Amino acid sequence: MKIFNGIFRIKNLNILNQQRFNNNIWKKILVKRINKNRKINYPLISSSPLSVILSTQFYNKKVKVLDLGSGALDIYFELNSILSNCSKLNKEKNNLKKITLDLVELPIILRVYKEIKFSKKFKINLLSSFNPKKKYDIIHISNSLHYFEEPKKLINLLLKSKAKYIILNSTKVGNIKTFVTLQKFYKYSIPIWFFSIKDLVKEFMPNYKLVFVSNYLHKYFGKFSKLPMKNFPKKLRIDHTKTLIFEKKN
User: Fold this and answer.
1) What is the pTM of this model?
2) What is the predicted pLDDT for the residue at 199?
């Protein structure tokens, strides 16, 4: 079964977005994932380096975090569990009350969030968009940058926040030329970016430097594996999505 099909050189995903995606389907999927996340007793491990950065660089400090494209609230549930467990193990007072977490999602998803009883350890803000003039310490984007219509414009807006760290988690990027393809999602075909890591890093220069890169393991067809891209030329294939951390230069 092919998940990705086609190779397009365009600047805006709207050019291919002729088949409007039904957000109600995405809502139903996220509700199931959120309910599953509620039941998970997260171990001291995270699917994102955000918790490590918070624990090592901002421990016991006030910190503002933007989570752009919050989806099934993985980051919220992981932070709530991981940092709480760390505090218990260290026998120190929990410092989560000093974290402001702005969750940005589609209005239809925000209505789901509003039904959730969030932990009082955080200050949670639910937003349908982010304010480029607002200052953040950390910007976190997980498995979503490749779905934005114009990533370059988005990055330029994010840089205005002058965050100390920008995390691109589980992003489709590699040693390739940037292109767009169509991702099969149920009965829909969704346009999605595959980024050149060289070009993507340039978007953050000269004020940011890339300080961390690692592969991110995903499940495909029920098991952890490489991206199913055998139908693409080798020069355009990537084995795994990647996690990148950018740090603001002094």
Assistant:
1) 0.90
2) 96
